[in-house]
Write a structure and sequence with these properties.
The structure holds two protein chains of two kinds.
Chain A: E1 4-9, H1 13-27, E2 31-36, H2 39-51, E3 55-61, H3 70-80, E4 85-90, H4 95-105, E5 109-112, H5 117-134
Parallel strand pairs in A: 1-2, 1-3, 3-4, 4-5
Helix pairs in contact in A: 3-4
Chain B: H1 4-8, E1 14-20, E2 25-28, H2 31-36, H3 40-44, H4 55-68, E3 76-81, E4 87-98, E5 104-113, H5 115-203, H6 206-218, H7 228-244, H8 250-259, H9 266-272, H10 278-316, E6 325-327, H11 329-339, H12 341-344, E7 348-354, E8 361-363, H13 365-382, E9 387-396, E10 399-405, H14 436-446, E11 450-456, E12 460-468
Parallel strand pairs in B: 7-9
Antiparallel strand pairs in B: 1-2, 1-5, 3-4, 4-5, 6-8, 9-10, 10-12, 11-12
Classes of the chains: A alpha/beta, B alpha+beta.
């Protein structure tokens, strides 16, 4: 069976470490967890995983990062990998950016920091079921 | 009639008269016609009947009665209708004339037309009133302006604060999010340990126990945390080694080894893991180490949040006494950089050229924070969030020089003189009040400092401030 992965992008290592462990705790070893510190690296990771025949199902991205912002990054991801479920996780709600991502990247959900594990679980699970329904 | 000729020569303003004790006029000088319009003979019939009924005249009639009895009166005034119907104010000085026997024979009087003088006085009085009123209005306006100015200064501060709050919200929500998730992780790990503790204590083989204890000792607590790129590199490396060694579920084992900081020790670890269900042993170690790892993460998050809160506290700190205090300029500036971190990190490289031996300076630190806030915020805006921000602090012995240079759009030559003017702004409505730089200049002047700037359109702007140490 093809391995599945969840990718997180955030410029703060404290977020990547805690979020990654949390996702692993929730979803177990069924999914791989990969992280990147900015948009550029995020895209690199997705491409690399895809090359290794690992299926990236969900991407959770911060909005405010050095370089490319979350919404622009997710739009780029959407163009190249339209099937990936896109989630934004950020401490500062920028409405314009969220709307941009909804409109142009089919943003699945927006979670604000600090988040609860229940919200995270629900959002990712609804995202995953979307993929399953599509087949 | 000693001075008859003299008085008649003053015909434009004076006339002279005398009357006997019965009030019959003995003489009225011809200038009465020039002044009042009446012929001498006509005037002799009596001037009192031409008096207006003003309040002034009512008093004057009393004075006249006394004067007629020979009692010397002070100069007095009355108002008369002229022949043409206009009103003139006449000032009278009367003196009684006695014969050798000491009997009163007549009253002599000098009448002075003071209409114009009275009018002038009236005008002056009116103008004085007007001036007084205008002065009061101006004072009120100044008070209003002062009020408005302090409101503007306040709203400028609030705007700067508002900008910061949006950023600070992010800066604080991030560590809180990390703390929250870390706590969740610790709870889950502990739950997992407790669920498996019986198995761990009673069901594992000697070999598994040995592996557990050996690996527990090997965990590299002192290793620095890996950045995501390094993590990916080691993941591949470790996984390949595990694959070659014939392990199953190498993804999971790799993740555990990375988690336990054993990423450089794969060659030593592989023989140890040649046991039954290595994943169970690694998972148990993972759960124990999770407490430490997440605690470290919480510690880092708390430090991050504290730094922001401290900077924020300093920013809004109001010293009511407003006394100068010895402050560290580097800290003062770095605090502002901390507060702008979220804007800076988007694409601005900060270069800090600080001299080593910067003495403490006697200043109003909270006001200087506003100076750096304004200048740094302007610089970030000028660079549209991308470029190089160079902050230099030089020790010039008696003075300290701070320069803040950006690689932004620059200030066009034609507005160089205007940028410190109040209400001058190049920002969109609502983005700036136009008093930021005025405030900066005022604060620098208050410190007896100096502010200069150099700017080239398309290349950038450098603001240079020098402040006295004492």
């Amino acid at each position: 069976m093809k391995k599945k992965a969840i990718v997180c992008v955030d410029d703060e290592s404290i977020i990547l470490d805690s979020l990654g462990e949390q996702i692993k705790n929730i979803f177990g070893d069924e999914y791989l967890y990969e992280s990147a510190e900015n948009a550029e690296e995020g895209l690199e990771v997705i491409e690399e995983l895809t090359k290794e025949e690992i299926d990236v199902l969900v991407i959770v991205s911060d909005w405010l990062m050095p370089g490319k912002k979350g919404d622009e990054f997710l739009i780029e991801v959407h163009k190249k990998f339209p099937r990936i479920i896109k989630v934004m996780l950020t401490g500062q709600a920028d409405e314009v950016a969220i709307n941009n991502a909804i409109k142009n990247a089919e943003l699945h959900a927006y979670i604000s920091k600090p988040w609860s594990s229940e919200d995270l679980e629900r959002v990712i699970k609804t995202g995953l079921s979307k993929i399953e329904n599509k087949g | 009639m000693k001075y008859k000729q003299l008085i008649e020569s003053l015909g434009n303003e004076y006339f002279f008269y005398s009357h006997n004790i019965n009030g019959d006029y003995l003489y009225i000088s011809p200038s009465v016609k020039t002044i009042l319009g009446y012929e001498v003979e006509e005037a002799k019939l009596g001037l009192v009947k031409h008096m207006t009924d003003s309040e002034l005249n009512k008093k004057t009639i009393e004075v006249l009665k006394k004067s007629a009895t020979g009692e010397k009166q002070k100069t007095f005034q009355f108002e008369l209708f002229t022949k043409s119907g206009s009103i003139k104010v006449i000032e009278i000085t009367e003196s009684p004339l006695y014969n050798e026997k000491g009997e009163l024979i007549s009253i002599e009087g000098v009448a002075h037309d003071i209409t114009r003088r009275i009018e002038r006085e009236k005008t002056i009085k009116e103008q004085n009133e007007k001036l007084k009123q205008q002065t009061e209005e101006l004072e009120a306006t100044i008070a209003d302006l002062k009020q408005t100015q302090s409101q503007l200064v306040q709203s400028e501060k609030m705007r700067a604060l508002g900008n910061l709050i949006a950023g600070v919200a992010h800066e604080i929500n991030t560590p809180i999010g990390a703390i929250n998730a870390s706590i969740d992780n610790i709870s889950r790990s502990l739950d997992d340990i407790l669920a498996n503790i019986y198995t761990l204590f009673t069901q594992i083989s000697e070999q598994q126990l040995l592996a557990f204890l050996t690996l527990l000792k090997m965990i590299r607590r002192d290793k620095p945390p890996l950045i995501s790129k390094e993590k990916r590199y080691y993941k591949k490396l470790v996984k390949e080694k595990l694959d070659n060694a014939g392990f199953e579920d190498t993804y999971t084992i790799t993740d555990h080894l990375i988690y336990l900081n054993l990423y450089e020790d794969a060659d030593q670890v592989i023989p140890i893991l040649q046991i039954e269900d290595p994943v169970f042993i690694l998972k148990s170690l993972h759960n124990i180490y999770s407490v430490r790892k997440n605690s470290e993460n919480i510690k880092m998050a708390v430090e991050k949040a504290s730094k922001v809160v401290y900077a924020l506290k300093r920013f809004t700190h109001k010293d009511q006494g407003m006394a100068k205090e010895l402050s560290n300029l580097k800290e003062n500036i770095d605090m502002v950089l901390t507060l702008h971190h979220n804007r800076i990190k988007q694409g601005i490289e900060v270069v800090q050229n600080y001299d080593d031996n910067i003495p403490l300076i006697n200043c109003y630190p909270d006001e200087l924070v506003q100076v750096w806030t304004n200048l740094i915020s302007n610089a970030i805006q000028a660079m549209d969030n991308t470029g190089q921000l160079t902050i230099t602090i030089r020790n010039l012995q008696e003075r300290i020089q701070v320069s803040i240079a950006d690689t932004g759009c620059g200030i066009p030559e034609e507005i160089h003189e205007k940028i410190f003017e109040p209400f001058f702004t190049t920002k969109k409505a609502g983005e700036g009040t136009g008093i930021g730089l005025e405030l900066v200049l005022k604060i620098i002047e208050k410190h007896q400092g100096n502010l200069e700037f150099e700017s080239k359109v398309g290349e950038g702007t450098t603001f240079t401030i020098t402040l006295p140490v004492n």
